[in-house]
Queue: 4 jobs
Job 1
Amino acid sequence: MEREFDTTEPAVAAVDVPSVKSKKIAELLRQFLAVQSRRSVAYSRLKSGFEDYMESRNEIAYKHLCAEITSEFHDCSKQVLQIESQFKSPDCSRNDLATLLRSVQEKEKEKLELTVKIQLLKKDGLPSKRSVSHDRCTFFHPTGHHCVNIEPITESLGTEEAEADALYDHDLKISIKSLQDAVVTINEYLEVVRTTEQDGLWLSMLPVMTDERDML
């Protein structure tokens, strides 16, 4: 009796390309969220350091902190640019996520600029309350001098000071409001990132698809 051989090719599992891509995208998004966590820590340090400065007026310590924070933010931006570039690569083909990260970057830049501006405004204080320099004054004995900063008290002088203070208050309030708006927008972007990351993790956990012939 002649033996029969099964010449049917064995079923081969198909490469689960969507799952591999989903895992890579999810990993990149986790990396991005980790960068955002670093930024959050840096902002906390900057806030705490500025509060310490306002009490101690230690210029050296504050400038040193600002230099460290600047370096940290620069490194964070560099990492995000690298992640953004990977989203544009054929391995991911997610220009939408690259654009999303670019939007976060722009808002983070605005947030940092506004944070620095607000700190400088608070550092200087109201124009009418700022200390004056006596470099141009004439000192005629150790305990007294002719102060060039003293001006006759007039109605116009009081009006100028009031206007300067009002302008200062307005600038500070607008800057704080703009900062709050930037933070809200960033948080909205990050919510999209988190949702996308969770969806990516769910897709990457799907079972590997087998060859269609297994279903015949």
Job 2
Amino acid sequence: MGEESAITGVEMKEEGLNNNVNTAAPPLHPPAPPPHFVLIHGISGGAWCWYKMRSLMENSGYKVTCLDLKGAGVDQTDPNSILSFHDYNTPLIHFLSSLNHDHQVILVGHSAGGLSVSEAMNKFGKKKIKLAVFIAATMLKSGFITDQDIKHGVPDLSEYGELNEVYDIGFGLGEDNPPTSMMIKKELQRKIIYQLSPQEDSTLAAMLLRPGPIQALTTAQFGEGEDVDSVPRIYIKTTKDNVIKPEQQEAMIKNWPPSDVYVLESDHSPFFSAPFSLFGLLVKAAVSFGC
């Protein structure tokens, strides 16, 4: 009797072990990688413009890449030598081309950086770009094709004075030819670009802004890619903008309607004047489109 009990006890233990083996949890799948934001500056700017946004986003677990376009930031190319938009935008195109075939990014462009985003959308479509975000940006499907495109997408700063009173102008091809580089004069930068931004940020910008290759930008044209409209787009309007004015933003939104429009009460540089609100909208955009 005692021997039978001992055998039964062993059998029960073995059965319990077998049950434990059978009910073990399956191995966990590795977590999905965080969304990858690629941030593109406007004319005269650089990757440095995004320092607040990069800190907020990386501290929240997002992957962030901030690029200098040709002749901007730490890229020491003379902007007067950059005569085509394709040349200017080469750093972004090379970066996207270098990504793994299944890697998609959230591509964000500010101001003239919107042209860089549009060219990339035409070239890569959804293969590389999961979502495009335009912040106070020139949003033109094929670049500057018509006079209307120029009216809507090029800043009109005539209220601040004549062209040579508002801009420092470079004539890399000689003064008998159109300008090759431009930058808003230092004494007008805060009034025009950063009027709602902290003083320390507009001071930093005054130290780092560089002339931008205006000929390359104003002649930007790109053939319409067949997948360009497959990429969802968000436009973030800036209601106190002195550069790309609200009515210009509205006109571009009407001509090429995005998937959604968000609104920020900020100057032309919300990465300085409203960084937390801008961060919240970028996260909202990523979540809304399953990024």
Job 3
Amino acid sequence: MAILHLSLSPRPLKPPQNPNPTTPKPKILCNFSKRDFILHTASLCAFSFSAYDPFAIAFADTSSSSKSIISIIANTKTWFQFFGDGFSIRVPPEFEDIMEPEDFNAGLSLYGDKAKPRPFAARFASSDGSEVLSVVIRPTNQLKITFLEAKDITDLGSLKEAAKIFVPAASTLYSARTIKIKEDEGFRTYYFYEFGRDDQHIALVAAVNSGKAVIAGATAPQFKWDDDGVKLRSAAISLTLL
């Protein structure tokens, strides 16, 4: 079985534009240069496949914590709303678009060559690059072998079964919840996972429409999550399929 996990980004991020000179820079508790730190942090928002070890994910006691975690979110209505290919998402204040030109060109076929998949459908970062919000889109038949077109994320399995796809091995799962949103033709199901891996804390929301999985991930160093976790969790939960 395969699992969709977070891996190294294939390219460096664009340096932040016009950082606010009055905002004090947070202290980074490592020996990386700023560029190395940005690369390391942004790597947690790229997705690929690896073998799944069913005993590698440490499930924290989510029975009492999941509801309380997901209930702690911010009002994002005043945030910038980004519209992408079949989705929208709210972007935290002061986050900057860090998509590269090649990210937009990916997915185009030239002279009959096979098109390369776009690594990101959207990508934003804080001014110091330590906090990243990304959206990726993947065909559901790459996540789970099936001959049928997935129309809802439940077609990939239950919340617990789908954790094998969306939560990487060696992670500690803090929260997992099903979110149902009323739409014109019924309810849309979203899966929410919040987990830690190495020194990073990640909030991830995934949904499916017409055979495509749209996955939003917000990540930050663990030591920054106490201050900015509500903001990042709220950004991920703001993902809406159009």
Job 4
Amino acid sequence: HKPACHEDKYTSGIHKFVQMFSVNPFLMAMLRLAVVSECRLLDNPRVGFDVPFMACIKFSFEPSNFLDFIGLYLDDRAVEEKLQGMLQVNAITAWDPSTIPPHMLYFWRVARARCNAEGLANDPVGLVEFVCRSRAEDPVTFDLHIPTFTVNVVRTNEPLESVCTIMGTRIEKPICVKSCLE
């Protein structure tokens, strides 16, 4: 770092990793698809407009190198103390709207009003809370705008397509939280 540079809670810890995650268009597209499914946006057209939704994103940090991962699992003392790691999303679960705390409801109302003012009144808006399983830090919550296009992709029920890098075969999976996490 430069002498004048200092880290604060938004440039270090889980805030930094959540920020890095949130600027990745592919990861955010998968997160939005998973949230539409998990928060049941297709079941109630008011969700994201008049009714808030909130998803809890549970994640951990895992070694980037598979051999280091196995070494940690086997308690191998040869594994370095500091490892290169990556953020791994482990689960996405919907909050019951009736249990969303008042301060989060206010945060959602502000986000909903901002999106309305930006011409996004036809798109659902909710909140996502990132909770780190492996570190005792406060969760990071931010608003999540979901384009109508994303909701329509889930509505069509077309499968997600990917290619197995080892075999080169095309794989189709249903749009659900599990598929989006993979």
